[in-house]
Amino acid sequence: MRLGLFTPIFNGLPLDALLVELKKYPQIEALEIGTGGWPGNSHLDLDGLLASKEAARAYRTKLEDAGLTISALSCHGNPVHPKKEIAGRDDEVLRKTVRLAEQIHVPVVVTFSGCPGGSAQDVTPNWITAAWPPEFSDALAWQWEERLIPYWKGAAQFAKDAGVKIALEAHPGFCVYNPETVLRLRAAVGDSVGINLDPSHLWWQGIDIPAAIAALGEAIFHFHAKDVAIHGAMRDVNGVLDTKSYREMAKRSWLFRSVGWGHSELEWKRIASALRLAGYDYVMSIEHEDALASTHEGLSSAISMLSRVLLKEPPVEAWWA
């Protein structure tokens, strides 16, 4: 496995300045680059590259000359949003991103599954987390059968025709938020859809990450290296479903942290080992969303731990093999 970086932490820098900044972190070998949606597109002109094969080729060459590859293009959005104008916008960005990935030979596009309303009349996404009262179960069935599966059948086929894999980031607030929902959607729409596995969104739900990795297996297309710290005193009183602002850090049940500031090195070694056992040998893409650490502090800390966790040499064949 190789170390990568999800670039929105440097959204204030243009591409050339980003490449200069990354010389401080020679362990980073791959970039995950936003094309639109919530990560934005500070380091890539989606329409411009699609309009010119020469520009697209020059863009990729510039990264290669800097010793970098692209692990994924990311366009986190909600293509099943109940407002048609938002759904249409995010679907357009996704399809453009898939086309660009095909053009510049990037194998993975990362996004969200999205979340529709609870009925055809809703205008606000409705993330349903309980089976009762019965209206919730009815609304959940409607979401999957009438919105989620029909949309992703088309999008999955579009990606498959382009030779690109869609890695859905399992994220609470959207219909796909844990391994079970990833595998349910994958079974319904095809194997060009899998997961961008981000432990930080699973730990606070009470999920054991190595167990999740074993269950997901070949459905793991990409991996975000991000940690989360559980505030035990708050969790013990209020549980883990927390709608307080991320600015109210001391009052929340959990916070996103840089790798190593929420879980131990041993836990991250368990994760790396589970990924190898599952056949994943691609990129750990560092995502920095730690409000308690500066960009340099958080990134340096993550690189330091993950460099110890990821073995660069192939494993030695055991004497009894």
Automatic annotation (TrEMBL):
PANTHER family attached to this UniProt entry: HYDROXYPYRUVATE ISOMERASE, XYLOSE ISOMERASE-LIKE TIM BARREL DOMAIN-CONTAINING PROTEIN
Keyword list, A-Z: Isomerase
Organism in which the protein naturally occurs: Tunturiibacter psychrotolerans
Taxonomic placement: Bacteria, Pseudomonadati, Acidobacteriota, Terriglobia, Terriglobales
GO molecular function per UniProt: isomerase activity
Domain Xylose isomerase-like TIM barrel: 49-301
InterPro entries: IolE/XylAMocC-like (IPR050312), Xyl_isomerase-like_sf (IPR036237), Xyl_isomerase-like_TIM-brl (IPR013022)
Domain of life according to the entry: Bacteria
Protein's name in the database: Sugar phosphate isomerase/epimerase
SUPFAM superfamilies: Xylose isomerase-like
Keyword field contains Mitochondrion: no
Gene3D superfamilies xrefs: Divalent-metal-dependent TIM barrel enzymes
